[in-house]
Fold each of these.
Amino acid sequence: MSEAILEISGLEACYGSSQVLFGLDLQIRAGEVVTLLGRNGMGKSTTLRCLTGWMAPSQGRIRFAGQDVTGWSADRIARLGLAIVPEGRQIFPNLSVREHLQAFAGNRSGASQPWDVERVFELFPRLRERASNMGNQLSGGEQQMLAIGRALVTNPKLMILDEATEGLAPLIREEIWRCLDRLREAGQTILVVDKYVRRLIRLADRHSILERGRVVWAGDSAALDADHGLWQRYLGV
């Protein structure tokens, strides 16, 4: 088995006096695709905020890339090799597609064949066609492709995708899924938060389901596919 790139243990988090996470545990090994599932308001976003350094946990530990990063700032964690494709994409309206990719490029993982602008254009030919377009001149699907490309050119050790297919037309959504399949085959370690369970079962190795800030189920794709009662109970599918 490969080494763990991410280990979250006993994670607790609060907003003021309201506790949101209760002893959450999660592990991702290098090369795995893992999902974090659950209805809205169950703690997925808070988990990502703690993991990426935008929120300090009240208890617990986060180890990433062999270091205890609990309480680190977001920029320091990012420099260690974590990249997020955020919900809402957060594309800069006044930068072109090429400028977005050039601004974020860097081989943080020390890859022998790193992601660069040209390799992203090969993954998403549509971005090559829009290379000189500004961020606010792109469709929603094109912005999502750019957000993924922007994360890839940092050559992350772990890439997080937060609702990456939300609000996209079915054809564009399927193009994003095919891209993620290719990244999985290339050995990219990925944490996915999304609602399309059937497609996630085909993509991911393992899944964790959150309910009110706790992991209530964890298992592989075969186990999740075999128990549709879990879908009804915790995911509303």
Amino acid sequence: MTENIERDVLIIGGGPAGLSAALVLSRARRRVTVVDAGEPRNARAEHMQGFLTRDGLPPARLLEIGRTEVRGYGGEIISGTVEHAAGDAEEGFALTLADGTVLRGRRLLVTTGVADVLPDVPGLQDRWGREVQMCPYCHGWEVRDRRLVVLATSPNSVHQASLLRQWSPDVTFLAAKAPAGDDAARLDARGVRVVEGEARRLVVENDRVTGFELADGSMLPCDAVFVAPEWAAKDGPLTDLGAEIADSGFVKVDETGRTSVPGVWAAGNVVSPAGQVIMAASAGSMAAAMVNADLIEQDVARKLAAA
């Protein structure tokens, strides 16, 4: 079904970035529709930290509050998955949803986020968002002074381990091959113990993590694990439209979130996967203001051309 209504702005993604943008645009008296697939990145986290006035709030509660605020200004939020995006800034954009619905809008903002791809170690995925975490700033306080293990997965893992020493004196760097050179010196300077070995599985007893079983059969005790996952951008709508991808592998945007495609913006973790919730919300707010300004400029240009 193709709807005859043309929104001012279509937003793909109903997380902090998308809802923040929808709030700004709705308050600017724009007709806005948010399409939300209902797959928030932090769904498995019990609490959200580091968001001023909302520290410790469950992520689902933040989204609930955000939806209520957006709807209070007339914004529309619908559940659905976008299968395809098409169009341009002059003629408008069209989103085809999985159920066949086609939505039309003058501008498009993509806030679809990323998927965190964890190492293939049994037990990690089951405890993701609980004792298995990624960001020390988000969850370091909750595991302060406990036995922490950083599972080496990328060059960023050394930085991650160095950071975690700020929260606990007991940090172990677990790597299939022990780091050398500057990385080894850095870990030693921070007092991080290095264990060379391959993680066979994460051990859970009585519903809590107790350690890693290594390939040689030995046990490495720990209370929490930090890992740097691979990031897979959920950028299907952006690639549909031909948006330029940066060397980082993520969509290229300017400081306002504007992509290389006229009329299309992107904000949040789909652009900056390491950003915390508060950063995503801020990026959504900035993009919304620029989208509104762009619509005004188009209206003015059309009026002048007609005159």
Amino acid sequence: MDITTALFYLFSAVLLASSFRVITAKSTVHSALFLILAFFNASCVWMLLKAEFLAITLVLVYIGAVMVLFLFVVMMLDIGSDRVRDGFLKHLPLAALVGALIALEMAAILMPGFRLNQPAEMSAAVQQLGNAKALGVEVYTSYLYPLEIASVLLLVAIIAAIALTLRRRKDSRSQDASEQVKVKKADRLRIVKMAPTVETPAEPAADNNTGAA
């Protein structure tokens, strides 16, 4: 067994263990931290497969941005994990069945791809261009239309999420820039003439101790 195979088994074992702890940890913060560990080990496995661009993207996007956002949301909302986990054992058989079906479907789709023989000229081209550049050329040439369709679907999902969650509060105050520009000095300032008044000086208070024996 060489060092690459040993590292693959090591990263895969830690990945499986951390993924299992994501769904079994009692604290939501611990679950998020175990998910970060799972992402990190998955990026290490991709590095062993010479997919440097995907590994760096996983670290920067998911670990550096998404998981940090998850941690902020979890810590700010202070969600009670006991209430969320009610009925966990009752739904466990159905969840295990659905998970097994998803795993079988992914295996049926991905396993034929591992048996394909990559042409020698493609391997040479990838080695010459580099992993990131070759992936960009492949995506924006052979898979341009699926990429555009996915982009449109994501845009529609973002707009739908904003439209569903946008609610006008009655106690909120907003400013209209166009109305502020139209305002004149007479609308904001009014000069009032008042008669001058003369203030009389206050008389000093009498000393109560005067004349006391």
Amino acid sequence: MSDLVVSGASVIHGSTLAVDDVSMTIRSGELVAVLGPSGCGKTSLLLAIAGLLPVREGSIAIGSRELSRPGRVVPPEKRGIGWVPQEASLFPHLSVAENIGFAVPRGRGRAARIRELAELVGLGALTNRAPNQLSGGQAQRVALARALAPRPEVLLLDEPFAALDTQLRTGLRREVAELLRAQGTTSILVTHDQEEALTLADRVAVLRDGHLEQFGTPEEIYQQPASDWVARFVGDVVELDGAWRGGRVTCALGAVEAAAVGFTPADGDTVRLMLRPEWIVPRPDLLAHAAAGADARVASISYAGHDAMLSCDLTAGLTVRMRMAAVDLPAVGEDLRLAVQRPGLAYPVPA
């Protein structure tokens, strides 16, 4: 197996520049999520990798085998790339086994390969069923088995769980990720679901308006976003303006340690401090220390079972949100002393 290398790729979809100078290397056996809002170029990038759209600039290769460059496109069927669409798109007149077998070369061992794939996706007992006798999750398993049948070098998954209900989607996507890793299949998952990308992928590529904003591990994307846009897109943020001084931002939550992202502020500059709500914590031990943290009163609580989001009014007249485990929650109206438990992120204040 070889790495998939996208080098400076630009792709036109219709009359739109859908992908603009994107470069990334997806390592053999890696599961990468391509994450972004609707219209950001995710599917166009997938279509270019599959050979269904040409590149205007740059190249796409698997190892030393070049698949796309301007004026040259290896046909989709000769790329060694599998595709799992958003809808299962099974042949309605074929059984489960026949749908899987559609992509299995004819010859000796074909029946054994079909049985192997059906067992692999947990459908060994359902091979004789018709597609209209399957649940949505079962149909997607058949589509996955069919895509894996020719042993592709790379598997592309275009929002394959989007049409499923929440409970089924959560369980199936975890099973699929485990299966792909066990098979050592290099995989690219397109999604607009931040939780899906962060929980499933080895690395995440964040696209915005055709540009690659950041490519890193889920932890890097969430904890160290490369821009304020990425910070907002991948999760909840608390934003406070404050004065930069020696690696700290003095704001309504006190003097908060921070890292400047993408610029070098001078002491006294006004910056935009961004925090994840779970970085803000109640610190009763600081109640007697006026210089540390900030006084607050719980205004409301949004309970979510495993955790809760609290809106807290600061004495400075601002409201901040904090996320905490849903055990021993304070009461609405209770006074707290809040502090920030890890360095925040400082960005330029928008003009």
